[in-house]
Design brief:
This protein has about 260 residues and is mainly beta. About 5% of the residues lie in helices and about 45% in strands. The chain has one helix and 17 strands. Strands 1, 9, 10, 13, 14, 15, 16 and 17 form an eight-stranded antiparallel β-sheet that branches. Strand 14 and strand 15 form a beta hairpin. The N and C termini lie far apart (about 40 Å).
Amino acid sequence: MSFLYLAGLESNLITQSGASLTSSSADANFPVTNLQGDYVWKPFRFNAAGTNDSITVDLGSAQSVGFSSIHYHNVDSGVTALQLRRSTDNFASSNILVGTFTVAEPSMYLNFASVSTGYWGLSFVGTNANPIIVGKWVLGVESSLTEEQLSSWSIGYEQAQVSPRPGVPINLADQQRRSLDMSFIAKSDAAVDEVVTMLRDSKYGAEPLVIVPDSNESSVYYGRVPSTHSIQRTSGGQENSARSLYRYSLRLEEDPLPVVVN
């Protein structure tokens, strides 16, 4: 088991300056450049229920990638495979399969041996019943905690609610969204510093975090840490300070997930 994360916009290569996205088609109201924002409620959508749709990104230079995730989508059983692919020549002749996602709602991820190249793509093999929607595509290198600090976690669900958002030319209804409550126990200052680094890289919740609480499982979360958190130190006494432990908890709240209704 490993606790994996990507913290902040800089960790997602797709959102970095110099990255250029293209797609096999696009709804004019939901362009592929929406994937370069940091919120999932302003998604990308293909302009029709096409066959073998694709999204590609030119990162501008070769970049190491070992993790990819997709958040908020409507991929159904008509898509027989959702593939992550890479290329050395912007898919002119080089088109290499990196891995195939196990489709899950509302999010899914792939973790693989890091490889460096400048061109990456998503291939939706088959035909979806409706135009495919993607709220967020993450591409980067994951970090992990060196100690198995995560002692427990629980998943909460918030009720759906309608909430129109400025600048988005559709009606939106927030799906039931998840929260992830995590309890940690750290045995060293260095272990605590790793979590502080994770929070700092996410601008202490102002920018998104991608978290996989257990790499042996399929769950992945994209959201923010909404409030300040304290770290409690418990001491083993003056005679045995090496037994000191640090206990703390974090809550990740997923961004509202839009449903296109017109």
